[in-house]
Design brief:
By secondary structure, the chain is α+β, with helices and mostly antiparallel strands. The chain is built from 14 helices and 12 strands. It folds into 2 domains: 3-212, Ribosomal Protein S5, domain 2 (2-Layer Sandwich), CATH 3.30.230.10; 215-388, Alpha-Beta Plaits (2-Layer Sandwich), CATH 3.30.70. The structure holds adenosine-5'-diphosphate and magnesium ion.
């Protein structure tokens, strides 16, 4: 509730008026399906209770002005100049210092939203947008998709753009790729915008088919506990690039457009063709895609208690085959399982960040306590444990 109020207050101090409305979108976490997105495979993320709010209202002078509690100064631009600002080389407005990086997210969304709706700058009014968030920034919970989803949803209403949820996700990705200059997939935006309470969003990253998948955690008395290791690995970026390259190498050697097209039954042949490292990278992607499909199937056939083994197998695959875990993440997973979690795995790109554990609601405190104890015993920085609740995606709040 407070971030919503912060957005309203910021709008008030920016304009001296009340906003016409407040819109928001969620942060996200991934239940299963890691590094499968750029292999055109499957992912199963969910929106979380942490949200970014955009309080917004129109103005008569053709300016778009954005402010955030995260940044000291508001940034303004003529709507008519959005295309000249962001239509050039990806990220150039930020790289050349014409727009502060944070402002390229909301302004880039405005630019991409107009293009997606095939509207001219002259057709729409100016706007003021004030942003506040309780999504931790840069913590792997996708504050970037949350700000994109909130602004896209606000502008969709104020400018009457008629965008569907998937259009808004595409707008967010385009803003991030082209206005900010960050090459990311579309999973974050889809899960931020399209999430539902107590559900995950299945996404086929090739076809962009989406499906809401009931989790049933509430019914079963289960919770998801995030164990943030506080580790930010120095070579996360290099490691990511290296894994992507290995996947492309594997796909090329196997003669398929993407590893999505390799079935588990093809792995024996892959072992003969590929070197050991490339083979293990490929095996992670192939088995992880299958685990996402299996998780969706098991959830509907048997409910959430039955997915624990799939989460554990996913972690083992990332640890041993894809080699993106770190000792802190392995310890978080092992400790959670020893303390009674039904399943646990690292989540996100790897080399640090958080693990997610599936636990009985009554066991949340015990698992968090045991994780803290195990980290202290190894001399690691104390982990930050908090529950993450599968929540509603983009919406209007006021
Ligand atoms: P993550 O998405 O994991 O939180 P990213 O690096 O993708 O991390 O996105 C974080 C960036 O998004 C911030 O550095 C900032 O530029 C922008 N951003 C996110 N939330 C806000 C906000 N509430 N106000 C302003 N900018 C934000
Ligand atoms: Mg992000």
């Amino acid at each position: 509730m407070t971030a919503l109020q912060d957005a309203r207050d910021l709008f008030g101090s920016l304009t001296g008026r009340a906003p016409e409305g407040v819109w928001s979108s969620a942060g996200r976490a991934n239940l299963i399906g890691e590094h499968t997105d750029y292999n055109e495979g499957f992912v199963l993320p969910f929106a979380i209770q942490h949200r970014t709010y955009a309080a917004a209202g129109m103005r008569g002078d053709g300016l778009i002005r954005v402010a955030s509690t995260f940044a000291p100064d508001a940034v303004e631009l003529r709507v008519a100049d959005l295309e000249a600002t962001f239509g050039g080389a990806a990220g150039s407005a930020v790289a050349e210092g014409r727009v502060p990086e944070w402002a390229a997210y909301p302004l880039g969304v405005a630019w991409a939203a107009l293009a997606a709706a095939r509207r001219e700058a002259g057709d729409v009014a100016g706007v003021d947008i004030a942003i506040a968030s309780d999504v931790p920034i840069g913590a792997g919970l996708s504050s970037s998709a949350a700000i994109e989803g909130a602004v896209a949803t606000a502008l969709d209403t104020l400018w009457d753009l008629g965008l569907e949820p998937l259009d808004k996700a595409r707008v967010g990705r385009r803003a991030e790729n082209e206005a900010v200059g960050a090459p990311t997939g579309i999973m974050d935006q889809v899960s931020s915008i399209m999430g539902r309470a107590d559900a995950a969003t299945f996404l086929d990253c090739r076809t962009l088919e989406t499906r809401s998948v009931d989790l049933g955690l509430g019914r079963e008395g289960l919770a998801l506990l995030a164990i943030d290791t506080r580790v930010k690995h120095a070579h996360a970026t290099g490691g990511y690039g290296d894994r992507r390259a290995a996947c492309e190498r594997g796909a090329a050697a196997l003669g398929v457009p993407a590893l999505r097209d390799v079935a588990a039954a093809d792995l024996d042949r892959a072992r003969d063709i590929l070197d050991d490292v490339t083979f293990r990278r490929v095996r992670h992607i192939v088995t992880e895609n299958q685990r996402v499909l299996d998780t969706v199937g098991v959830l509907s056939a048997s409910g959430p208690r039955a997915i624990g083994e799939l989460l554990v197998a996913s972690h083992a695959s990332m640890r041993d085959d894809f080699e993106i875990s770190v000792p802190e993440l392995d310890l978080a997973v092992e400790t959670a399982l020893e303390a009674g979690a039904l399943g646990a795995r690292m989540t996100g790109g790897g080399f640090g960040g958080s693990a997610v554990a599936l636990v009985e609601v009554e066991a949340v405190d015990v698992v968090a306590h045991e994780a803290a104890r195990a980290f202290a015993a190894r001399g690691y920085t104390a982990p930050h444990c908090f529950t993450i609740e599968p929540s509603e995606g983009a919406r209007r709040d006021a």
